[in-house]
Specification:
- There is one protein chain.
- The protein is an all-beta fold.
- It is built from no helices and 23 strands.
- The strands form six sheets. The protein has a five-stranded antiparallel β-sheet, with no helix packed on it. A four-stranded antiparallel β-sheet has the order 3-4-5-6, with no helix packed on it.
- The radius of gyration is 18 Å and the shape is globular.
């Protein structure tokens, strides 16, 4: 589905069960399962979509891998994934792809010992910069995930996003959540008040692009932040 100024639009083709869906400058990357009567094998492996999803290109691992945990650099299109189930050639673990999902190589993940990992985020423009986050904060790697060092500690991060100049993250603090935008150039931080969320609504996806913030929550609600104001686009999966 795509949100335009006059509302939501659904694609008429390639209506697959997408997992690890990640927008990039010229389209999106995803994994998942094909729709009924599709010519694609199940699972999809790594797919690259263009023309707003009308055209799909299978990059690799068709019929072998379903990546629930995938992050793509918006400009670099580097992919960072966690493979849960072994394929014919790859064991479970963390992998990177610097060629748009055509091939993968393992990440050594040195420096994460003893730390919990809830998710992984590719830097928007630097191909070998990647972040991992979780109950112990955020770690950053500048060598493609081989070695990590602390970026933000002592905060339970539930989701985050990266742009060319900024990093935005949401931390859980008791029963509440806090959104902070960090400028990667001058190291300043700005706190952004989140929209009013009910007790069962947990932030699960955050995207930053062109000065806007997009937030998705666990009850299938979607919000957009622009001009210092939140607007709800979906309420529990229903169009407002």
């Amino acid at each position: 589905m795509e949100f335009r100024k006059d509302g939501w639009y659904e694609l008429s083709s390639n209506r697959h069960d997408y997992m690890g869906f990640e927008l990039v400058k010229d389209g999106f990357y995803a994994s998942g399962h094909p729709e009924q009567d599709s010519p694609y094998k199940n699972p999809l492996g790594v797919v690259h979509g263009t023309d707003k999803g009308e055209t799909l290109d299978i990059r690799s691992l068709e019929g072998e891998a379903d990546f629930h945990y995938m992050s793509a650099g918006f400009e670099s299109e580097s992919l960072y994934v966690y493979l849960e189930t072994a394929t014919s050639e790859l064991e479970p673990g963390f992998y990177r792809s610097l060629d748009g999902g055509t091939s993968f190589e393992p990440m050594k993940m040195n420096g994460i010992e003893g730390r919990g990992i809830a998710g992984i985020t590719a830097d928007a423009s630097e191909p070998k910069r990647v972040f991992v986050y979780g109950p112990d904060g955020i770690l950053v790697s500048d060598d493609g995930g081989d070695t990590f060092e602390p970026f933000l500690e002592q905060k339970q991060i539930v989701t985050m996003t990266s742009t060319k100049e900024e990093l935005a993250s949401i931390a859980k603090d008791g029963a509440s959540f806090n959104l902070v935008v960090s400028n990667l150039t001058d190291k300043t931080e700005t706190t952004v008040e989140l929209p009013s969320l009910n007790a069962d609504s947990i932030p699960i996806e955050l995207v930053s692009q062109d000065g806007r913030l997009l937030l998705a929550t666990s009850d299938n609600s979607v919000y957009v932040y622009e001009s210092e104001e939140w607007t709800q686009l979906l309420q529990a999966g229903k169009v407002n």
